[in-house]
From TrEMBL:
Gene Ontology biological-process annotations: cobalamin biosynthetic process; methylation
InterPro entries, alphabetized: 4pyrrol_Mease, 4pyrrol_Methylase_sf, 4pyrrole_Mease_sub1, 4pyrrole_Mease_sub2, Cbl_synth_CobM/CibF, Siro_Cobalamin_biosynth, Uropor_MeTrfase_CS
Signal peptide (UniProt feature, chain positions): none
Domain Tetrapyrrole methylase: 1-209
NCBIfam families found in the cross-reference section: cobM_cbiF
Keywords for this protein: Cobalamin biosynthesis, Methyltransferase, S-adenosyl-L-methionine, Transferase
EC number: 2.1.1.133
A Pfam family reported for this protein in Swiss-Prot or TrEMBL: TP_methylase
Protein source organism: Holtiella tumoricola
GO MF term (any one): precorrin-4 C11-methyltransferase activity
Protein name: Precorrin-4 C(11)-methyltransferase
PROSITE patterns: SUMT_1, SUMT_2
Pathway annotation: Cofactor biosynthesis; adenosylcobalamin biosynthesis
């Protein structure tokens, strides 16, 4: 069996119980070496083969999986992806090639780095009357974006926005977000290596974004988070409001 496993954002205790159990039993682990915390591999069996996918092509990854599977029905292959595999994980292309070969696989979710960043910031992305929508996106770089998802168009909603893979394009991010509709003083944060021991948080306003990134030499493994959820104004939630009746509780008169 082949398992696509979310490794979580960095802290080795943030992998799921299931993911950890599979890692302990795996005969082959292919992990995304550039982002996955290698300490997660310490509990693998001694004879487990460990490959770093940073140096491999898609075809090489699939070949390694197939060869391991051919060794016997009881073989366990773990493809370890950073955060949650469904976000910029490039798992679809792997699953499609496995389907072609009628090989079975399962996906084990993980804690995405955007959740790790909220925890690091001690913030809630969805505040009543501030934003009830979270946009996960990226800036176009060497990988193009669908034209309808251009950053300034997404910015028109002024919702909570989490921008992956884009710290090296910070100036452009800043300009497009302001052009799209966010105020220049919209609060922003850059979360570097959320949940890792070397985690760092930088806060400021949108018009300072590229300056903060340049000044602190942040070049990778960081998220840009944008929105008034980082501010101090919001309404209390109805769910816990004494005057609000819902399925489980009568309003206190
Ligand atoms: N599947 C991953 C995202 C992979 S794309 C997830 O769910 O988190 C890689 C990008 O994710 C990085 O460029 C960076 O923007 C972000 N990232 C991954 N881990 C991070 C972390 N611990 N802290 C901040 N950003 C992180």
């Amino acid at each position: 069996m082949i398992y696509f496993v979310g490794a979580g954002p960095g802290d080795i205790e943030l992998i799921t119980v299931k993911g950890q159990r599979l890692l302990k039993t795996a005969d082959l682990v292919i992990y995304a070496g550039s982002l996955v915390n290698p300490a997660l591999l310490n509990e693998c069996k001694e004879e487990c083969i460990i490959l770093d996918s940073a140096m491999m092509t898609l075809e090489e990854v699939i070949k390694a999986m197939v060869e391991e599977e051919m060794k016997g029905e009881d073989r366990v292959v773990v493809r370890l992806h950073t955060g949650d595999p469904s976000i910029y994980g490039a798992i679809r292309e792997q699953m499609d090639l496995l389907d072609e070969r009628t090989l079975k696989y399962e996906v084990v979710p993980g804690v995405s780095s955007f959740c790790g960043a909220a925890a690091a910031l001690k913030k809630e992305y969805t505040l009543p009357n501030v934003s009830q929508t979270v946009i996960l996106t990226r800036m176009e770089g060497r990988t193009p974006m669908p034209p309808k998802e251009e950053l300034s168009m997404l910015a028109s909603h002024q919702a909570t926005m989490i921008i992956f893979l884009s710290v090296s394009l910070a100036k452009e991010v800043e300009e497009r977000l302001i052009k799209g509709g966010y105020r220049e003083d919209t609060p922003i944060a850059i979360v570097y290596k959320a949940t890792w021991p070397e985690e760092k948080i930088y806060k400021g306003e949108l018009n300072q974004l590229s300056h903060i990134i340049a000044e602190n030499h942040i070049t990778k493994t960081a998220l840009i988070v944008v929105g008034d959820f980082l501010g101090d104004t919001y309404e209390r939630s109805k769910l816990y409001d004494p005057g609000f009746t819902h399925m489980f509780r009568e309003a206190i008169k």
